[in-house]
Amino acid sequence: MKWFDPLLARHGGVLYTDEAYEHGDTQAMLSWAVKRGTIIRARRGVYCDPRLPAWSIEALRVGGRLACASALAHHGLAQEPRELHVVVPANAARLRRLAEDVVVHWSRRRLAGDRVAVSVDEAVRQAARCRALVRDTL
């Protein structure tokens, strides 16, 4: 068992720096774990389990979590879309890695789901309104 496995499992595969500190871990321990490949530093203050799917890690790197068609694929209800759909808070700043294949969904409210993806209900609502999905089906 790897050092961070129980802590990552408790937090759904995504760990924030302050949670690691509350657990008694230090920045040096986090850095050591990243160098060994035990955890991945998705972005400043956000670490994740390297066993998460690549698209989930990429959503974390952008600054949000899986949304819309990507969340539906995460929940096993659709195939992985060509574009990565990520939801971020309306006031999010410093989004990273915004390539052409990333569709950002902005939200003013807290959406149900876990740290990796929005809930199925939220994903269905987003997909019904998503211009990128409509554009791809035409």
Describe the fold and architecture.
By secondary structure, this protein is of the alpha+beta class. The protein folds into two domains: 5-48, no CATH class; 54-137, no CATH class. 40% of the residues lie in helices and 17% in strands. The protein contains seven helices and six strands. The chain has helices at 5-10, 17-22, 27-36, 54-62, 68-74, 120-129, 131-137, and strands at residues 14-16, 40-43, 46-48, 65-66, 84-89, 102-107. Strands 1-3-2 form a three-stranded antiparallel β-sheet. β2 (40-43) and β3 form a beta hairpin. α5 (68-74) packs antiparallel against α6. The longest helix is centred in the first third of the chain and has 10 residues, at 27-36. The radius of gyration is 16 Å and the shape is elongated. The termini are far apart. The mean pLDDT is 89.
